[in-house]
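Please go through the sequence and fold tokens given here and tell me how the chain folds. Record follows.
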Amino acid sequence: MKTPNFRIYLEQWNASQLALSTPLIHQLMANWLMESSSHGKRQLQMMAFRGAGKSSVIALYLAWRLSVNPDLRVLLLAADLSLAIKMARNVRKIIEKHPLSSAVNPTKKNNKIDQWAVDRFTVCRNRTSRDPSVLAAGILSNITGCRADLIVYDDVEVPNTCNSSLKREDLRNRLRESNFVLTPNGTQLYIGTPHSYFSIYADKARPEIGEQKPFLDGFHRLEIPVMDENGMSNWPEIFTKDHIEKIKAQSGPQQFAAQMMLQPVNILDSRLNTDQLNFYNGELDYSESQRQAVLRLNGKKMISCQAWWDPPFASAKGDDSVLAIIYTDAEGQYYLHHIEYIKLGLSADTQQAEAHQQCDIVANILKRYFVPSVTIESNGIGKLLPGILKQTLATQKIPCAVIEKSSTQAKHVRIIESFDTILAARALSVHDNIRKTSFLTEMMEWQPKGHGKDDGLDAVAGALSQEPVRLRYSYNTGRAKWQGGANTFHADSNFDV
């Protein structure tokens, strides 16, 4: 008997095994899968809210595919092996019980069963292959040597694989490696929900992590959030309005947005909220008239500048050396205009040379952005830098003062004290170019006394903690002072009263 299309296969399973009709949401999934296959689409991404039954539909889809083509080789990848086995076990159970799969069910044949385990099994097929019909593996497993005609990525993104930048990069590398397992003209199917702002499922590139296009760029997408654009439930029989509100209250707005509305947002319990930032674009405009200097940003006059250079404490650790520059206007708004991450890889022999090289880089930045003073945290290698930077600035005639500061306050305390009030007042604006750095990632993932990267946060906190400095130039550079303040006037006092 010819195996019918997937829609009929799905509906017959629900009727015969579950005594249920097929809900519209599952019909939508089934139609999308069939249409994608008929149009030759081989890169698929299906996202549906938690509890929508997407894994159940996919298990039936795989059983149907094996019934249509017994020679198909399927690789099931999940965040860990237990999750992949759960999917494989469901597929195997369907093949054992679905009447339309009896032709490929080896338990109903007299011949010897090849493989019928929980993590791998082989249906009755026409050809001989060293790969099973279905193989389950965790995303961190070694799948080298496997070959698959269809790879299903079932919830590979979970908190344990995406709650830090290192884990997210490792996940992406593992997923890229799986491309070598796929046969020519093979199909990839991603199913899941986002667990991070930097989700692999995001439909827009994340320049903060170096992306120029989304990770799954070009994939044919199906997205089914719990509510449509009109606020109506996509499965009203199960997810009523009251039930949705209850889920939202219990999970919180961030979890609800990610897991139920499929929006890639930060769901970590971060201490700092990037939603309280303002973003802007534009460059500084410096002008002089009759020795009066004015520095404007998007038409607003800047009245002060704070800059903080935070070198790494140990030269051999490869930490980031970070320079942060912040301006302030007359209304008390802070503008984080520039962050420079300078990678270090110093050794004892080259420390002096690279210190000079860094000072040259910093001096050029200070000149470009009209910075009147910079504070250097003089711990570790920072003890060496103030003198070198002062010499560099003097040689290049850059009118910028160098302030040395040894920090004794705990880093997490300084970060909290610097950011809390300013963020609460929504008084911190950030230049769009900073989206391309790791600063926003640090901010979203930062937790007091945590172990994540915070080099940029620490530098910005240092700049925010400084009082505005207005520098009177000690040597003639031909450039006026943009911060304002009274100019010196010499009056002739040699007269008689």
